[in-house]
Specification:
Number of helices: 5
Order of helices and strands: HEEHEHHEHEE
Low-confidence stretches: none
Oligomer: single chain
Strand order of the largest sheet: 2-5-1-6-3-4
Largest sheet: 6 strands, mixed
Shape: globular
Structural class: alpha/beta
Mean pLDDT: 95
Length: 129
Amino acid sequence: MKKDGILNRHLAGALAGLGHGDGVLVCDAGMPVPDGPRLVDLAFRAGVPAFAEVLEGLLAELVVEGATAAQEVRRANPRAAALLEGHFPALDLVPHERLKELSSRARLVVRTGEARPYANVLLRCGVFF
């Protein structure tokens, strides 16, 4: 058994298969999950696990070269906006409907138990070299 890092075998396996440019949608429990991408549903109950916890864990495992979120996050969920802008100074903000469209091309969707609106981000994988 792994000693540290991500222990969820479905998530660890999905992350290992990602390559440069692949998209990973990290979303709240209310975000519509598109057909197509692999889904790892971590939602246990409302708020568990939190969006921030899952994002922190993923960022410890992934190289991210860009991120996109809904522009509505600034108004509707300032805490999530501050978290995202703290991690991604060049965060691309688009209308929520556009984020849903872009999410359909993601390779992986990681659903959290977050129950606050617009706690969603589409990560673009980079390379470590």
